[in-house]
């Protein structure tokens, strides 16, 4: 009987300890969860209206005065990468401005968004938007995934995401940057591709519907920022627009016409694959890039760089050079001293001569 009493007393003590530990753990892990907002709150920017609001008019981008705007810009690397390397500061954007840039494309990789967390990543983006406002630069925020969002299969682990995460990303971004004229574009998905079937299948009908759903979601928070919709084949092919354009106003379309996308002669194929769309809709080549070899100078009229920029400008297509970084290919700068590569020099000349 005595032994039973001791065991019972010990059991009660153990339950009391466990209950205490559980209560402390619960309080620590779940304290005030009911007070947390569902989405990070929108931010008030004192200079949110300093830059002219960019809109779509026909097949052009226009400012508040009704003047047409053809953007020439650069992509930087992911802010999370740059911050880890110790170079996330206004000086970076000043250097970007100095080469003639009008638009800064900011690629946000799903893996960096998750690991840093939305709240902390927004701090990086807030800094970028503030610096760009001071420098009269517009911003394109790009959800930088590559793959098949319909089947949630992606080219590399850094691009892994889900439909839910993609929707939540744009819900967060559009609420946070609503009414901020500096953020001119939301690039909904970097490069849709099935990788020749290795990432499954997706129809244009399904891709169109997903983009329309994202646009509808964004506009419940932000009715002004222009959404950018990419074509298939790693954001190159816009031919489905001939039959089924996206059902939304104030949007534009994306193409990435790298030199390896088609064999020469390029111009006739560019016209067939995406150039035709610029006659009816605004189109922006949010990535163009190449590496200049010593034996292949870019100052000749037949070089890809000359031909693609000439073609885009002639057809009123805005363009963004990839990439203003010393590590990601094709590099526009040699180091964080901001000395330009031959590719960087080419794009600097192309932007400043216009």
Provide a descriptive summary of the structure in words.
- It is a single chain.
- It contains eleven helices and 14 strands.
- Helix 4 packs across helix 5.
- Mean pLDDT is 91; it is low at 1-27.
- The longest helix is centred in the first third of the chain and has 29 residues, at 2-30.
- The protein has a single domain, classed as Alpha-Beta Barrel (TIM Barrel), CATH 3.20.20.
- An eight-stranded parallel barrel has the order 4-5-6-9-11-12-13-14, surrounded by five helices. Strands 1-2-3 form a three-stranded antiparallel β-sheet, with no helix packed on it. Strands 8-7-10 form a three-stranded mixed β-sheet.
- It is α/β, with parallel strands linked by helices.
- The protein has helices spanning 2-30, 79-84, 90-98, 110-116, 118-134, 163-177, 204-219, 232-235, 266-273, 304-314, 342-352, and strands at residues 55-57, 60-62, 68-69, 72-76, 103-108, 138-143, 146-148, 153-154, 183-187, 191-192, 226-230, 251-254, 283-288, 318-324.
Q: What fold name stands as the CATH topology?
A: TIM Barrel
Shape: globular
Query: What is the assembly state of the chains in this entry?
Result: single chain
User: Mind describing the biggest β-sheet?
Assistant: 8 strands, parallel, barrel
Read across the widest sheet, the strand sequence of neighbours is 4-5-6-9-11-12-13-14
CATH architecture name = Alpha-Beta Barrel
């Amino acid at each position: 009987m005595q032994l039973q009493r001791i065991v019972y007393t010990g059991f009660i003590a153990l339950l009391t300890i466990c209950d205490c530990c559980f209560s402390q753990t619960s309080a620590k892990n779940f304290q005030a969860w009911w007070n947390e907002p569902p989405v990070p709150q929108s931010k008030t920017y004192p200079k949110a209206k300093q830059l002219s609001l960019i809109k779509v008019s026909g097949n052009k981008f226009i400012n508040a005065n009704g003047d047409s705007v053809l953007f020439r810009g650069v992509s930087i690397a992911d802010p999370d990468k740059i911050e880890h390397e110790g170079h996330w500061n206004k000086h970076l954007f000043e250097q970007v401005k100095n080469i003639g840039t009008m638009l800064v494309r900011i690629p946000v990789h799903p893996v960096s968004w998750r690991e840093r967390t939305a709240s902390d990543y927004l701090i990086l983006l807030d800094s970028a938007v503030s610096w760009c406002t001071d420098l009269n630069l517009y911003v394109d925020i790009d959800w930088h995934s590559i793959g098949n969002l319909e089947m949630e299969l992606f080219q590399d682990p850094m691009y892994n995401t889900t439909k839910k995460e993609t929707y939540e990303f744009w819900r967060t971004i559009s609420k946070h940057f609503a009414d901020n004229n500096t953020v001119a574009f939301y690039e909904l998905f970097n490069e849709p591709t099935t990788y020749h079937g290795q990432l499954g299948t997706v129809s244009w009908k399904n891709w169109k519907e997903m983009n329309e759903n994202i646009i509808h979601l964004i506009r419940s928070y932000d009715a002004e920022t222009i959404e950018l919709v990419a074509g298939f084949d790693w954001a190159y092919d816009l031919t489905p627009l001939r039959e089924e354009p996206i059902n939304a106003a104030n949007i534009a379309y994306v193409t990435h016409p790298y030199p390896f996308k088609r064999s020469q002669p390029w111009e006739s194929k560019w016209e067939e694959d995406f150039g035709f769309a610029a006659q009816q809709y605004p189109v922006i080549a949010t990535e163009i890039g190449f590496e200049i070899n010593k034996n292949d100078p870019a100052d000749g009229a037949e070089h890809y760089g000359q031909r693609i920029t000439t073609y885009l400008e002639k057809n009123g297509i805005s363009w963004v050079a990839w990439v203003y970084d010393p590590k990601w290919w094709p590099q526009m700068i040699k180091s964080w001293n901001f000395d330009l590569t031959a590719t960087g020099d080419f794009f600097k000349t192309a932007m400043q001569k216009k």
